[in-house]
Amino acid sequence: MDRLFKLKERGTTLTTELLAGITTFLTMVYIVIVNPGVLSEAGMDFHGVFIATVLASIVATLIMGLFSNYPIALAPGMGLNAYFAFSVVGGEGVSWQTALGAVFVAGVIFILLSLTSFRYMLLDAIPSSLKHAITAGIGLFITFIGLQNAKIVVASPATLITMGDLSQPMTLLTIVGLVISLILMAYRVKGFLFIGMIITAIIAVITGQMHLPAKWAALPTGLNMTAFQLDIGGVFQNGLYAVIFTFLLITLFDTTGTMLGVAEQAGLLRDNKFPRSRGALLADAIGTTTGALLGTSPTSAYVESSSGVAVGGRTGLTAITVSVLLALTLFFSPTVSVLAGIPAITAPALIIVGFLMMNVLRKIDWSDIEEAFPAFLIVVLMPLTYSIATGIGIGFIVYPILKLIRGKGKEVHPIFYVFAVLFFIQIGFFSH
What we know:
This protein is mostly helical and about 425 residues long. It contains 20 helices and 4 strands. It has helices at about 1-5, 15-30, 30-40, 45-70, 80-90, 95-115, 120-125, 130-150, 170-185, 190-205, 230-235, 240-265, 275-295, 305-310, 315-330, 335-340, 345-355, 370-385, 390-405, 415-430, and strands at about 75, 155, 160-165, 300. The protein has a two-stranded antiparallel ribbon. Strands 2-3 form a two-stranded antiparallel ribbon. Helix 6 crosses helix 12 (about 240-265), helix 6 packs antiparallel against helix 13 and helix 10 packs antiparallel against helix 17.
């Protein structure tokens, strides 16, 4: 065990790694409830997505633990699932099978990029201000979806959206659940989102808004409803190149940023460089591709891994522990299905995760209009157009224009001009 994971070299023990894995699992297990709930909005079978979510997470996390020896867990990313369900399928009107095809193509490209140094060039071409804006914009989009699901905000003929009826039982329960999760978060309780879900579920049972499942556990079934249903041909027939690029872009730099942050926290960086980055990125790329084949949105490194690092996790054994615990959740599909069917249980998680993602806005220099205004457009246009790709595209078009107007065109990476032109063509001349 020590030879495989280098426990002594990294100053950790078997017990510490197991505890770290349990901690990380508790902070991220909410995704096995939320992700199937989100993707079922796109018409996908809940149980199939649930199994696909768990299996894709296990595959990606196992690769991370065994081949890169990092205490980082991966699972379908929040934001990417919302983009899949509400922008690609709901907004652009393509089938979920075609959307899975786009995820698969993005995953294959990600694998190829992970094997070359071009991944660094791609990341370097995108200004930090826009990377932060994309993260924040997705966060705002997720929060908006959470508020809608809970009917805290509703459609209005006069103003497009307005405040909902907060006295409605489910809406009121959502607010109670949100307050509970926020209190747990304020007191730094590990796994506050998952614990908040459980407490809200108990209240829902007491108030008669949720009925307990006939059976708590069962053998996993339903994967055949989503596995190998992807339509790759439809991706190119519908010209979903911007969708592919958006999946790839968000997955690439979101994963890279999270991995660097967690590795730095664990003291695993060497001269500010990320050792074994190829294997780490391949874990996500293979997880994304596997997930597309099985029936779920792209995987991503989870920032919740930092909770495991905080209690001493330093090796891939932490990730292996997370994988084992995720495997156990496969047998609780009936329970997960009931929990996900109650908006008051899942909506607070969407709202709080969105809030946490907005934190990166402080890293943008708002006094520099060339950096700030394109970032601003990305953040506000994602929820207003109900499209993550459109928000990114407008920001990517405006950024080089402002730089050229100010005579700073050389500061823009040549590849970024290519991005801008492609987005201009996609938004201006193709259905989006």
